[in-house]
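Re-run requested by the PI after the first attempt was lost when the workstation crashed. Everything re-entered from the original request form. Ligand of interest: zinc ion.
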Amino acid sequence: MSHLGLRLSPVTSRPLGPTNSHTGQPLSRSVTFQFALDPNVEQRILLAKCAGARRFTLNHHLARVKANLDARSAEREVLSASGVSGEPSTPPLSWTGFSFINEFNDWKNGESEDSPVNEDGTRGLAWRHELPGDVFECASVDAARALENFSASRRGERSGTPVGFPRFQAKGKVTPSFRLRNRATPGRVPSSQPIRFNGPSHLRLPKFGPVKVFGPTRKVRRMIDAGRFHVYSATLAQRAGRWTVSLTGVAARLHQAERSRTNRHAVPVGVDRGILSLCVAADANGVPFENFEGVRLLKQAQASLKAANRALARTTPGSKGRQRARSRLAKRHRRVVNIRRHLVHQASRALVDRAQVLVIEDLNVAGMARNRHLARSISDAAMGELSRQVLYKARWHGVEVRVADRFFPSSKTCSGCGEVRNNLDLSTRTYSCGVCGLSIDRDLNAAINLARWQPNEAPTVTLLGPTRAALRSTA
Ligand SMILES: [Zn+2]
Protein backbone atom coordinates (compact mmCIF):
# COMPACT_ATOMS: atom_id res chain seq x y z
CA MET A 1 0.00 0.00 0.00
CA SER A 2 1.19 3.45 -0.80
CA HIS A 3 0.09 6.14 1.58
CA LEU A 4 2.72 8.75 0.74
CA GLY A 5 2.68 10.34 4.13
CA LEU A 6 -1.10 10.57 4.20
CA ARG A 7 -1.90 9.68 7.76
CA LEU A 8 -4.46 6.97 8.32
CA SER A 9 -6.84 8.48 10.78
CA PRO A 10 -8.37 5.74 12.84
CA VAL A 11 -11.73 6.43 14.42
CA THR A 12 -10.09 6.68 17.83
CA SER A 13 -6.58 7.51 18.89
CA ARG A 14 -6.43 4.64 21.40
CA PRO A 15 -3.34 2.55 20.75
CA LEU A 16 -4.35 -0.90 19.66
CA GLY A 17 -2.68 -3.73 21.49
CA PRO A 18 -3.37 -7.42 21.13
CA THR A 19 -6.63 -7.97 22.98
CA ASN A 20 -9.01 -10.89 23.04
CA SER A 21 -12.72 -10.85 23.71
CA HIS A 22 -14.63 -13.21 25.99
CA THR A 23 -14.95 -15.64 23.09
CA GLY A 24 -11.22 -15.46 22.39
CA GLN A 25 -11.56 -13.33 19.24
CA PRO A 26 -8.50 -11.12 18.63
CA LEU A 27 -9.68 -7.51 18.44
CA SER A 28 -7.72 -5.15 16.23
CA ARG A 29 -9.95 -2.63 14.44
CA SER A 30 -11.14 0.66 15.94
CA VAL A 31 -14.80 1.07 15.22
CA THR A 32 -17.47 3.54 16.27
CA PHE A 33 -21.23 3.01 16.21
CA GLN A 34 -23.47 6.02 16.57
CA PHE A 35 -27.11 6.12 17.65
CA ALA A 36 -29.59 8.89 18.33
CA LEU A 37 -31.04 8.79 21.84
CA ASP A 38 -34.56 9.23 23.14
CA PRO A 39 -33.93 10.06 26.82
CA ASN A 40 -36.76 10.50 29.32
CA VAL A 41 -37.15 13.74 31.28
CA GLU A 42 -34.86 12.71 34.18
CA GLN A 43 -32.22 11.37 31.82
CA ARG A 44 -32.36 14.56 29.78
CA ILE A 45 -31.65 16.60 32.92
CA LEU A 46 -28.80 14.26 33.89
CA LEU A 47 -27.33 14.51 30.37
CA ALA A 48 -27.28 18.29 30.61
CA LYS A 49 -25.70 18.09 34.10
CA CYS A 50 -22.98 15.76 32.84
CA ALA A 51 -22.17 18.07 29.92
CA GLY A 52 -22.04 20.96 32.40
CA ALA A 53 -19.73 18.95 34.68
CA ARG A 54 -17.38 18.30 31.79
CA ARG A 55 -17.18 22.02 31.01
CA PHE A 56 -16.72 22.78 34.70
CA THR A 57 -13.86 20.28 35.05
CA LEU A 58 -12.09 21.44 31.89
CA ASN A 59 -12.32 25.08 32.98
CA HIS A 60 -11.08 24.14 36.48
CA HIS A 61 -7.87 22.67 35.05
CA LEU A 62 -7.36 25.42 32.48
CA ALA A 63 -7.74 28.11 35.14
CA ARG A 64 -5.22 26.35 37.43
CA VAL A 65 -2.68 25.96 34.67
CA LYS A 66 -3.16 29.50 33.41
CA ALA A 67 -2.72 30.97 36.91
CA ASN A 68 0.43 28.89 37.34
CA LEU A 69 1.86 29.97 33.98
CA ASP A 70 1.03 33.62 34.67
CA ALA A 71 2.62 33.50 38.13
CA ARG A 72 5.79 31.92 36.78
CA SER A 73 6.15 34.35 33.91
CA ALA A 74 5.57 37.32 36.27
CA GLU A 75 8.29 35.99 38.58
CA ARG A 76 10.60 35.48 35.65
CA GLU A 77 10.11 39.11 34.62
CA VAL A 78 10.93 40.35 38.12
CA LEU A 79 14.02 38.12 38.18
CA SER A 80 15.29 39.33 34.82
CA ALA A 81 14.56 42.98 35.71
CA SER A 82 16.70 42.69 38.81
CA GLY A 83 19.41 40.89 36.86
CA VAL A 84 19.19 37.73 38.96
CA SER A 85 19.42 34.41 37.16
CA GLY A 86 17.39 31.48 38.41
CA GLU A 87 14.07 29.71 38.22
CA PRO A 88 10.78 31.12 39.57
CA SER A 89 9.97 29.95 43.10
CA THR A 90 6.46 28.83 42.05
CA PRO A 91 6.86 25.20 40.94
CA PRO A 92 5.45 24.21 37.52
CA LEU A 93 2.27 22.10 37.49
CA SER A 94 2.23 18.59 36.16
CA TRP A 95 0.06 18.41 33.02
CA THR A 96 -0.51 14.69 32.79
CA GLY A 97 -3.96 13.13 32.73
CA PHE A 98 -3.10 11.14 35.87
CA SER A 99 -2.13 14.16 37.92
CA PHE A 100 -5.22 16.03 36.69
CA ILE A 101 -7.50 13.17 37.71
CA ASN A 102 -5.91 12.93 41.16
CA GLU A 103 -5.95 16.67 41.72
CA PHE A 104 -9.60 16.97 40.71
CA ASN A 105 -10.65 13.96 42.79
CA ASP A 106 -9.03 15.45 45.90
CA TRP A 107 -10.54 18.83 45.14
CA LYS A 108 -14.09 17.62 44.58
CA ASN A 109 -14.00 15.16 47.49
CA GLY A 110 -13.01 17.94 49.89
CA GLU A 111 -9.52 16.57 50.51
CA SER A 112 -7.42 19.43 49.22
CA GLU A 113 -6.72 22.83 50.79
CA ASP A 114 -8.69 24.77 48.19
CA SER A 115 -11.69 22.41 48.09
CA PRO A 116 -15.03 24.25 48.02
CA VAL A 117 -16.81 24.62 51.38
CA ASN A 118 -20.59 24.16 51.35
CA GLU A 119 -23.23 26.04 53.37
CA ASP A 120 -23.64 23.16 55.82
CA GLY A 121 -19.91 23.18 56.54
CA THR A 122 -19.07 20.06 54.53
CA ARG A 123 -16.20 20.24 52.08
CA GLY A 124 -16.12 19.20 48.45
CA LEU A 125 -18.29 19.57 45.40
CA ALA A 126 -21.86 19.12 46.72
CA TRP A 127 -23.33 17.62 43.53
CA ARG A 128 -20.50 15.19 42.74
CA HIS A 129 -22.44 12.05 43.69
CA GLU A 130 -25.31 12.76 41.31
CA LEU A 131 -23.12 12.10 38.28
CA PRO A 132 -21.00 9.21 37.07
CA GLY A 133 -17.47 9.90 38.33
CA ASP A 134 -16.12 9.11 34.91
CA VAL A 135 -17.44 12.42 33.56
CA PHE A 136 -14.86 14.23 35.73
CA GLU A 137 -12.04 11.82 34.97
CA CYS A 138 -12.53 11.87 31.20
CA ALA A 139 -12.78 15.68 31.23
CA SER A 140 -9.50 15.80 33.21
CA VAL A 141 -7.82 13.58 30.62
CA ASP A 142 -9.19 15.79 27.81
CA ALA A 143 -7.88 18.94 29.52
CA ALA A 144 -4.45 17.33 29.82
CA ARG A 145 -4.53 16.34 26.16
CA ALA A 146 -5.53 19.84 24.99
CA LEU A 147 -2.72 21.34 27.07
CA GLU A 148 -0.25 18.81 25.71
CA ASN A 149 -1.19 19.82 22.14
CA PHE A 150 -0.67 23.44 23.09
CA SER A 151 2.73 22.85 24.66
CA ALA A 152 3.88 20.54 21.84
CA SER A 153 2.92 23.26 19.38
CA ARG A 154 4.85 25.82 21.41
CA ARG A 155 7.91 23.57 21.45
CA GLY A 156 7.59 23.29 17.68
CA GLU A 157 6.91 19.55 17.81
CA ARG A 158 3.56 19.77 16.09
CA SER A 159 3.00 20.36 12.39
CA GLY A 160 0.17 22.45 11.01
CA THR A 161 -1.33 25.64 12.33
CA PRO A 162 -0.07 26.64 15.80
CA VAL A 163 -2.31 25.57 18.67
CA GLY A 164 -3.07 28.29 21.21
CA PHE A 165 -3.89 27.90 24.89
CA PRO A 166 -7.08 25.80 25.06
CA ARG A 167 -10.25 27.86 25.15
CA PHE A 168 -12.39 28.04 28.24
CA GLN A 169 -15.66 26.21 27.69
CA ALA A 170 -18.52 28.69 27.66
CA LYS A 171 -22.06 27.40 28.08
CA GLY A 172 -23.97 27.80 24.82
CA LYS A 173 -20.74 28.21 22.83
CA VAL A 174 -19.56 24.61 22.83
CA THR A 175 -21.40 21.43 21.85
CA PRO A 176 -22.71 19.86 25.08
CA SER A 177 -20.89 16.55 25.34
CA PHE A 178 -19.15 14.17 27.70
CA ARG A 179 -17.58 10.72 27.73
CA LEU A 180 -18.00 7.64 29.88
CA ARG A 181 -15.59 4.72 29.86
CA ASN A 182 -16.84 1.18 29.90
CA ARG A 183 -14.39 0.28 32.69
CA ALA A 184 -14.22 -3.32 31.55
CA THR A 185 -11.31 -4.95 29.80
CA PRO A 186 -12.00 -7.07 26.73
CA GLY A 187 -12.64 -10.60 27.92
CA ARG A 188 -15.34 -9.78 30.42
CA VAL A 189 -18.73 -11.10 29.40
CA PRO A 190 -20.87 -8.30 27.91
CA SER A 191 -23.73 -8.76 30.40
CA SER A 192 -21.42 -7.75 33.28
CA GLN A 193 -20.06 -4.60 31.64
CA PRO A 194 -21.12 -1.13 32.86
CA ILE A 195 -22.07 0.03 29.35
CA ARG A 196 -24.27 -2.59 27.70
CA PHE A 197 -27.39 -3.07 25.65
CA ASN A 198 -30.55 -3.85 27.52
CA GLY A 199 -32.79 -5.41 24.92
CA PRO A 200 -32.98 -4.23 21.32
CA SER A 201 -33.74 -0.58 21.97
CA HIS A 202 -32.10 0.39 25.26
CA LEU A 203 -28.52 1.13 26.18
CA ARG A 204 -27.58 0.96 29.85
CA LEU A 205 -25.21 3.67 31.04
CA PRO A 206 -23.83 4.11 34.60
CA LYS A 207 -26.14 6.31 36.72
CA PHE A 208 -28.56 6.68 33.79
CA GLY A 209 -30.18 3.26 33.70
CA PRO A 210 -31.52 2.10 30.35
CA VAL A 211 -31.68 4.92 27.79
CA LYS A 212 -33.82 4.41 24.71
CA VAL A 213 -31.89 4.44 21.42
CA PHE A 214 -33.26 4.96 17.92
CA GLY A 215 -32.36 2.85 14.94
CA PRO A 216 -31.39 -0.78 14.44
CA THR A 217 -28.98 -2.08 17.08
CA ARG A 218 -29.05 -5.71 15.98
CA LYS A 219 -25.70 -5.67 14.21
CA VAL A 220 -23.74 -4.11 17.06
CA ARG A 221 -25.46 -6.29 19.69
CA ARG A 222 -24.64 -9.42 17.73
CA MET A 223 -21.03 -8.31 17.38
CA ILE A 224 -20.81 -7.68 21.14
CA ASP A 225 -22.42 -11.00 22.06
CA ALA A 226 -20.20 -12.93 19.65
CA GLY A 227 -17.13 -11.23 21.12
CA ARG A 228 -16.37 -9.42 17.88
CA PHE A 229 -16.71 -5.93 19.35
CA HIS A 230 -15.71 -4.52 22.71
CA VAL A 231 -16.89 -1.07 23.81
CA TYR A 232 -14.17 1.13 25.31
CA SER A 233 -16.23 4.25 25.82
CA ALA A 234 -19.46 6.07 25.06
CA THR A 235 -19.40 9.70 23.98
CA LEU A 236 -22.66 11.57 24.36
CA ALA A 237 -23.25 14.82 22.50
CA GLN A 238 -26.19 17.10 21.85
CA ARG A 239 -26.49 18.74 18.42
CA ALA A 240 -29.50 20.70 17.22
CA GLY A 241 -31.44 19.50 20.27
CA ARG A 242 -30.81 15.81 19.63
CA TRP A 243 -28.61 13.68 21.90
CA THR A 244 -26.51 10.99 20.26
CA VAL A 245 -24.24 8.30 21.66
CA SER A 246 -21.09 7.10 19.92
CA LEU A 247 -19.87 3.71 21.09
CA THR A 248 -16.16 3.50 20.40
CA GLY A 249 -14.20 0.31 20.75
CA VAL A 250 -12.23 -2.47 19.14
CA ALA A 251 -13.60 -5.03 16.73
CA ALA A 252 -12.39 -8.27 15.23
CA ARG A 253 -11.03 -8.41 11.68
CA LEU A 254 -13.63 -8.68 8.97
CA HIS A 255 -14.57 -12.17 7.95
CA GLN A 256 -12.20 -13.76 5.41
CA ALA A 257 -14.98 -13.79 2.82
CA GLU A 258 -15.18 -10.01 3.07
CA ARG A 259 -11.44 -9.60 2.74
CA SER A 260 -10.89 -11.87 -0.25
CA ARG A 261 -13.74 -11.32 -2.64
CA THR A 262 -13.15 -12.75 -6.05
CA ASN A 263 -15.51 -10.58 -8.07
CA ARG A 264 -13.62 -7.33 -7.65
CA HIS A 265 -12.86 -5.00 -10.53
CA ALA A 266 -9.62 -6.16 -12.15
CA VAL A 267 -8.24 -2.74 -13.26
CA PRO A 268 -7.35 0.14 -10.94
CA VAL A 269 -10.20 2.54 -10.26
CA GLY A 270 -9.59 6.29 -9.97
CA VAL A 271 -11.81 8.42 -7.74
CA ASP A 272 -12.16 12.14 -8.33
CA ARG A 273 -14.18 14.62 -6.34
CA GLY A 274 -17.20 15.89 -8.21
CA ILE A 275 -18.63 19.35 -8.02
CA LEU A 276 -22.11 18.30 -9.07
CA SER A 277 -22.02 14.81 -7.60
CA LEU A 278 -20.29 13.44 -4.54
CA CYS A 279 -17.50 11.75 -6.47
CA VAL A 280 -16.85 10.19 -9.85
CA ALA A 281 -15.05 6.88 -10.32
CA ALA A 282 -13.67 5.35 -13.50
CA ASP A 283 -11.20 2.60 -14.32
CA ALA A 284 -7.91 2.75 -16.21
CA ASN A 285 -9.64 1.55 -19.40
CA GLY A 286 -11.71 4.70 -19.38
CA VAL A 287 -14.91 2.94 -18.35
CA PRO A 288 -17.04 4.88 -15.87
CA PHE A 289 -17.13 2.79 -12.71
CA GLU A 290 -19.74 4.58 -10.73
CA ASN A 291 -21.06 8.10 -10.48
CA PHE A 292 -22.13 8.61 -6.92
CA GLU A 293 -25.13 10.80 -7.49
CA GLY A 294 -27.39 10.35 -4.50
CA VAL A 295 -27.46 14.11 -4.13
CA ARG A 296 -31.15 14.75 -4.78
CA LEU A 297 -31.98 14.33 -1.11
CA LEU A 298 -29.01 16.48 -0.21
CA LYS A 299 -30.10 19.20 -2.60
CA GLN A 300 -33.61 19.22 -1.17
CA ALA A 301 -32.19 19.45 2.33
CA GLN A 302 -29.86 22.25 1.25
CA ALA A 303 -32.75 24.16 -0.34
CA SER A 304 -34.78 23.90 2.85
CA LEU A 305 -31.71 25.02 4.78
CA LYS A 306 -31.53 28.12 2.60
CA ALA A 307 -35.22 28.84 3.17
CA ALA A 308 -34.73 28.51 6.94
CA ASN A 309 -31.80 30.91 6.69
CA ARG A 310 -33.94 33.51 4.90
CA ALA A 311 -36.76 33.02 7.41
CA LEU A 312 -34.31 33.70 10.25
CA ALA A 313 -33.20 36.93 8.60
CA ARG A 314 -36.81 38.18 8.55
CA THR A 315 -37.34 37.75 12.31
CA THR A 316 -36.82 40.43 14.94
CA PRO A 317 -33.67 40.12 17.07
CA GLY A 318 -34.45 38.84 20.56
CA SER A 319 -37.97 37.68 19.70
CA LYS A 320 -39.57 34.27 20.33
CA GLY A 321 -39.91 33.93 16.56
CA ARG A 322 -36.18 34.31 16.14
CA GLN A 323 -35.53 31.60 18.73
CA ARG A 324 -37.84 29.23 16.86
CA ALA A 325 -36.30 30.15 13.51
CA ARG A 326 -32.83 29.54 14.88
CA SER A 327 -33.62 26.10 16.22
CA ARG A 328 -35.33 25.20 12.92
CA LEU A 329 -32.21 26.33 11.06
CA ALA A 330 -29.99 24.26 13.34
CA LYS A 331 -32.13 21.16 12.74
CA ARG A 332 -32.06 21.57 8.98
CA HIS A 333 -28.32 22.12 9.05
CA ARG A 334 -27.94 18.94 11.06
CA ARG A 335 -30.02 17.11 8.48
CA VAL A 336 -27.73 18.26 5.65
CA VAL A 337 -24.72 17.10 7.66
CA ASN A 338 -26.32 13.73 8.38
CA ILE A 339 -27.35 13.11 4.78
CA ARG A 340 -23.91 14.01 3.50
CA ARG A 341 -22.24 11.73 6.01
CA HIS A 342 -24.54 8.89 5.06
CA LEU A 343 -23.80 9.39 1.35
CA VAL A 344 -20.06 9.45 1.94
CA HIS A 345 -20.29 6.22 3.95
CA GLN A 346 -22.29 4.56 1.16
CA ALA A 347 -19.84 5.67 -1.53
CA SER A 348 -16.71 4.64 0.39
CA ARG A 349 -18.23 1.27 1.17
CA ALA A 350 -19.26 0.69 -2.47
CA LEU A 351 -15.74 1.57 -3.64
CA VAL A 352 -13.89 -0.79 -1.29
CA ASP A 353 -16.46 -3.52 -1.96
CA ARG A 354 -16.04 -3.54 -5.69
CA ALA A 355 -12.49 -2.41 -6.51
CA GLN A 356 -9.21 -4.20 -5.92
CA VAL A 357 -7.04 -1.11 -6.40
CA LEU A 358 -8.24 2.43 -5.75
CA VAL A 359 -6.40 5.61 -6.71
CA ILE A 360 -7.29 8.81 -4.88
CA GLU A 361 -5.83 12.29 -4.76
CA ASP A 362 -3.54 13.43 -1.98
CA LEU A 363 -5.62 16.24 -0.58
CA ASN A 364 -3.89 19.07 1.19
CA VAL A 365 -6.33 19.61 4.00
CA ALA A 366 -4.77 22.83 5.27
CA GLY A 367 -4.81 24.30 1.76
CA MET A 368 -8.41 23.26 1.25
CA ALA A 369 -9.63 25.05 4.33
CA ARG A 370 -8.42 28.32 2.86
CA ASN A 371 -10.31 27.83 -0.40
CA ARG A 372 -13.09 30.38 -0.54
CA HIS A 373 -14.93 29.04 -3.58
CA LEU A 374 -18.08 27.69 -1.95
CA ALA A 375 -18.97 24.74 -4.21
CA ARG A 376 -15.31 23.84 -4.24
CA SER A 377 -14.93 23.94 -0.49
CA ILE A 378 -17.99 21.72 -0.04
CA SER A 379 -16.72 19.14 -2.51
CA ASP A 380 -13.27 19.37 -0.91
CA ALA A 381 -14.75 18.66 2.50
CA ALA A 382 -16.77 15.72 1.20
CA MET A 383 -13.76 14.35 -0.69
CA GLY A 384 -11.52 14.75 2.35
CA GLU A 385 -13.95 12.70 4.41
CA LEU A 386 -14.36 10.19 1.58
CA SER A 387 -10.57 9.67 1.36
CA ARG A 388 -10.37 9.17 5.10
CA GLN A 389 -13.12 6.55 5.01
CA VAL A 390 -11.75 4.85 1.89
CA LEU A 391 -8.35 4.53 3.58
CA TYR A 392 -9.58 2.88 6.76
CA LYS A 393 -12.23 0.73 5.08
CA ALA A 394 -9.72 -0.40 2.45
CA ARG A 395 -7.49 -1.60 5.26
CA TRP A 396 -10.36 -3.61 6.70
CA HIS A 397 -11.23 -5.18 3.37
CA GLY A 398 -7.68 -5.77 2.14
CA VAL A 399 -8.01 -3.35 -0.78
CA GLU A 400 -4.98 -1.44 -2.06
CA VAL A 401 -5.20 2.36 -2.10
CA ARG A 402 -2.73 4.44 -4.10
CA VAL A 403 -2.50 8.10 -3.27
CA ALA A 404 -1.57 10.15 -6.34
CA ASP A 405 0.87 12.91 -5.53
CA ARG A 406 -0.52 16.38 -5.01
CA PHE A 407 0.81 17.87 -8.22
CA PHE A 408 -0.41 15.16 -10.56
CA PRO A 409 -2.53 17.18 -13.05
CA SER A 410 -5.50 14.80 -13.06
CA SER A 411 -7.98 17.42 -14.28
CA LYS A 412 -5.74 19.10 -16.83
CA THR A 413 -4.51 15.99 -18.62
CA CYS A 414 -6.41 14.64 -21.62
CA SER A 415 -7.35 11.02 -20.94
CA GLY A 416 -7.38 10.45 -24.73
CA CYS A 417 -3.92 11.58 -25.79
CA GLY A 418 -2.10 12.68 -22.64
CA GLU A 419 -1.89 16.35 -23.61
CA VAL A 420 -1.64 18.60 -20.51
CA ARG A 421 -3.48 21.89 -20.64
CA ASN A 422 -2.14 24.91 -18.82
CA ASN A 423 -5.35 26.26 -17.48
CA LEU A 424 -8.77 24.83 -16.91
CA ASP A 425 -11.39 27.01 -15.30
CA LEU A 426 -13.51 25.53 -12.53
CA SER A 427 -16.66 26.48 -14.41
CA THR A 428 -15.59 24.42 -17.44
CA ARG A 429 -17.60 21.26 -16.89
CA THR A 430 -16.50 19.53 -20.09
CA TYR A 431 -12.90 18.79 -20.99
CA SER A 432 -12.33 19.47 -24.70
CA CYS A 433 -8.96 18.53 -26.10
CA GLY A 434 -7.54 20.71 -28.84
CA VAL A 435 -5.10 18.00 -29.91
CA CYS A 436 -7.17 14.83 -30.27
CA GLY A 437 -10.62 16.38 -30.21
CA LEU A 438 -11.83 14.41 -27.16
CA SER A 439 -14.80 15.92 -25.38
CA ILE A 440 -15.51 14.38 -21.99
CA ASP A 441 -17.02 15.26 -18.61
CA ARG A 442 -14.39 17.04 -16.57
CA ASP A 443 -14.67 14.85 -13.44
CA LEU A 444 -14.79 11.62 -15.44
CA ASN A 445 -11.64 12.68 -17.30
CA ALA A 446 -9.88 13.30 -13.99
CA ALA A 447 -11.02 9.96 -12.58
CA ILE A 448 -9.66 8.09 -15.62
CA ASN A 449 -6.30 9.87 -15.30
CA LEU A 450 -6.13 8.98 -11.62
CA ALA A 451 -6.87 5.32 -12.38
CA ARG A 452 -3.85 5.31 -14.71
CA TRP A 453 -1.53 7.01 -12.26
CA GLN A 454 1.63 5.05 -11.54
CA PRO A 455 3.23 5.23 -8.08
CA ASN A 456 6.73 5.90 -9.46
CA GLU A 457 5.61 8.58 -11.90
CA ALA A 458 7.64 11.78 -11.65
CA PRO A 459 5.69 15.00 -11.08
CA THR A 460 4.86 16.46 -14.47
CA VAL A 461 4.07 19.98 -13.28
CA THR A 462 6.87 22.50 -13.09
CA LEU A 463 6.13 25.08 -10.44
CA LEU A 464 7.06 28.22 -12.28
CA GLY A 465 4.25 30.58 -13.18
CA PRO A 466 1.20 29.87 -11.03
CA THR A 467 1.53 29.61 -7.26
CA ARG A 468 0.87 26.39 -5.44
CA ALA A 469 -2.46 27.70 -4.21
CA ALA A 470 -3.58 28.62 -7.71
CA LEU A 471 -2.58 25.17 -8.90
CA ARG A 472 -4.56 23.52 -6.17
CA SER A 473 -7.69 25.43 -7.02
CA THR A 474 -7.62 24.24 -10.62
CA ALA A 475 -5.67 20.97 -10.57
ZN1 LIG B 1 -6.41 14.77 -26.26
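Saved to the shared folder this time. The longest helix spans residues 41-81.
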